[in-house]
Amino acid sequence: MRVAGKRFIQSSPQTINIMPILSNPFDLSLSGLSSGEIEDIQLADMLLASAETLREKSDRESKGSGKKILFDAHELLMTPTSAAVAYFKNVPFGQVEQFAGIQAIVEKVARAKRVHIIDLGIKCGVQWTILMQALASRNECPLESLKITAVGAGSRQMEGARKWLMSFAETMNLPFSFMKVTMSDVFDLREDQFEIDAEETVAVYSEFFMWTMIPQPNQLDSVMKVIRKFNPCIMVIIEVESNLSRFIEALFYYSAYFDCLDICMEKEDQNRLFTESLMSQGIKSAVVAEGEERKLRHVKIDVWRRRILAILPCPKHI
User: CA angle, 191 as apex, 188 and 193 as ends, to 5°?
Assistant: First the structure.
């Protein structure tokens, strides 16, 4: 895809004529590649060349049909499924993200005796077992209490996380409590829903929770203003850093994901097939959806930084 993308950019961006590229067997950009690799690049060439027409067709249809995009990526990501568990187990991205985030929190609360974690959009909560193990191994500064407040829309989902974490905490002999804050809309989130002790060191963890708020900055502002009142020692935000504005960006992003799945999961694995179908829906949303219908959006880190620091003007907290 990198080679094909470079060739695509070098070709005329206004009028794409792919035939001269495909018909030139002595193209220097293809030197040193096997015949199979050249065929793959040529296929990508044709896909990229057809993108301009597809984008125009999608734009016309999305504006004229009046049909809504029935894909709710946020709901699917927030709902624990066998596919989600299989993805976390086999694809390294999620494990690396969670480990890095938890390690950052461990370092910030190293001397705290009372630790309070606010998990925005909690899923299964398995990542907190890493934190529990780290806190249980402290000798110089024994832990007096660990509290996790789960924020989410599904009480059933949070109850599953509560049972799992309570059971694990018992095996570690940790003083642990689990609180739930249920909301149907982000604007429902209020400071008085949280039980914050003045002696607690608060850390906030947000994993793929805020990305749907990109099209509606007032939602992000509302959430961050509540979080700011807790004066967290750290806020960990895990989001996709990519500008999936339209077809070309989505193509490169998702093609990398498809390649990764091809390596990490068996071809006929039903969980892989479900994950691939989820990604295909993401591509459709990026290409076809317009306005409020287009909920699937990702942005670069500089956009996140500007929006968050405008509300939390303390870089050391992020």
Answer: 70
What's the chain's average pLDDT?
77
Q: What is the pTM of this model?
A: 0.73
CA nearest neighbour of 193 among 223, 220, 219, 166: 223
Query: What are the backbone angles phi and psi of residue 178, rounded to the nearest 5°?
Result: -130, 125
| Residue 86 in tokens | 């299989």
CA distances from 17 to 3, 12, 31, 47, 208 (A): 17, 8, 21, 12, 40
Tens digits of per-residue pLDDT, 251-303? 778 778 888 888 898 888 888 887 777 776 667 666 666 666 666 667 888 88
CB distance 177 to 139 below 8 Å: no
Asked if 118 and 209 count as a contact pair (C-beta separation under 8 A), the reply is: no
- Per-residue HEC secondary structure of 66-128 comes to CCCCCCCHHHHHHCCCHHHHHHHHHCHHHHHHHHHHHHHHHHHCCCCCEEEEEEECCCCCCCH
Q: What is the spatial distance between Cα 114 and Cα 146, in angstroms, rounded to a whole number?
A: 6
CA quadruple 97, 216, 151, 71: dihedral sign: negative
Rounded Cα distance, 82 and 218, in Å: 34
Length of the chain: 318
Q: Which DSSP symbol is given to 31?
A: T
Pairing of strands 176-182, 114-120: unpaired
- 124 closest CA partner among 171, 97, 163: 163
Residue written as tokens 């219908």?
293
